[in-house]
Amino acid sequence: MLYLTLRQYEYIVGVADTGSLTKAAVQLNVSQPSLSVAITRVEQHLKRTIFLRGKGSAIEITPFGHRLIAKARTLLALGAEIEQDHDVAQTWVLGCFADIAPWYMAPVLKKLGDRFPALTFVGREGRFADLGRDLAEGKIDFAISYDVGFEGNFTRRKLVDIAPVAFVATDHPLAQANTLELSDLKDMPLILFNEDLSEGFMRDLFTRINLTPVIKQKVASLEMMRSLAANGVGVGISYSRPPGHLSYDGKPLVTLPIATPEARTEIALIWSGLRADSPDFDAILDALTPPVVDAVSSE
Questions:
Q1: Fold classification of 164-263 (topology level)
Q2: Burial profile 133-166: b = 16 or more Cβ within 10 angstroms, e = fewer
Q3: Which residue of 7, 80, 227, 233 sits 20 to 30 Å from the alpha carbon of 50, by its own alpha carbon?
Q4: What is the pTM of this model?
Q5: Do domains 89-161+266-296 and 164-263 have the same CATH topology?
Q6: Which burial class, exposed, middle or buried, applies to 29 when counting CB atoms under 10 A from its CB (0-12, 13-18, 19+)?
């Protein structure tokens, strides 16, 4: 339990700033005797001297006092920030699932900046768990993501349905196909993302169509998946489809749409269902709906 109050910390900082009990008492609207007693009680509680107060001489701050006063200033500034939070111009934070951020974040931030020139917008990439946590804790205001792992009090608005693709080497047996089914990948070594929620989603998908995936490799990035696929390590499966037919290491590869209906999923605009209503927020949500997002779809 905290013994000292913010008011007592204000007294200490006030005396330090004015260098005088008399001046600090006037500034803080408190009697000088009350101020002197309050500081003495703080010193007694901490068992350390903050100020040297010789009669008729200037107040001096002890080394301990200087350290305490610096921390007290930080504490008071934080308290003021908490109280004034509703008055501070808000910076709106758009979260975006990292794999699709290159397609969505820049165009959406540009669109929002043009639509709402008086507001400030920034973007933040994240994985499923990061986005869910940050939405719940108010660190981001809304997120564009696959609707995976957002359990709890979240509200979402579907933006677009998308289908996955498979990445294969140019000499892979499936390389000449126009499209493929997930069943075509039976017993083939697969490359999946190593995030638990992403991998769990893919495992559940295969289970729904009565298949068991053979996972050869797990990766943290889309380009690592494409590079491994281009080098013949396995078949990469992703819901992000970069343009071009070369991996980062310059190897050619083939990108095949997966036509299995059960594999389709949605990209959604997601936000906390517990956040306070706001006219600005409602207007932003309306701006982040088709056709705005359709124009930057990853397909």
A1: D-Maltodextrin-Binding Protein; domain 2 (3.40.190)
A2: ebbbeeebbbbbbbbbbbeeebbbbebeebbbbb
A3: 80
A4: 0.68
A5: yes
A6: exposed
